[in-house]
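HUMAN: Can I see a protein plus its fold?

ASSISTANT:
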Amino acid sequence: MSKCIFCLTVSGQFLSEEHIFPESLGNKTKILPAGCVCDFCNNGVLSILDSVFVQFDGIAMMKALHQIPSKHGQLKALFLQDTKIKHRGSGHVEIQLSSNEQVSSSDNGAQWTSIGRTKLTPSYIKQVARAILKQAYECAFLDHGPLVLEGSFDPLREAILTGKNFDSYLAIKKQVSPDPTKGGCKYIPTSFGGVSGLIAVSSFFNIQLGTVFPFGSDEGMPLDQFNVIHFSGLD
């Protein structure tokens, strides 16, 4: 009998596979087969969280620069507040800046700065953190199976599906060297106050984003290497 690893239903439809990492980031292998996630969760909140993750400005910019197509095979332009990145065919991209002041020199040549599309509001970063937690939870299910379906993980599942009682932070690695070959998620099982959870770090293009659930169980997370933005269960 099929059972959804998120809402734990056994009565819904289970016709679709679930991509642990968004298919539009090139994921063709880390997939949960049909029967693991009900169609209601898969095509609803989990799809929304995948979209939020892919559209995070750092991820979206690297995806555009390295011409990673959408899951439908399309190469789309990226429009930031002061920068446009367009595809020009034959592996070329065109970068249009609003001002020459965006460009500066460095030891490695020229570099530019851009203003992102999305304000890092508490409600937005909470969605990104839920997307990261979703990836880590599905990886944990691959590794440990039914153990993560125990009742002690109920608050974590609720945090992913609804954001309720999710008080934590989004950690953004301060200094990275972008790498289009890097992609995946690392997690550490943890617990606090009888609640089972995860320390999770997702890394695509070597842009590292982390979070923890439950809050207070992040011993060993090197937060000095990250910019940390907090949010609460009410955001």
Observations:
- The mean pLDDT is 91.
- The chain has three domains: 1-43, 57-112, 119-231.
- The longest helix spans residues 122-144.
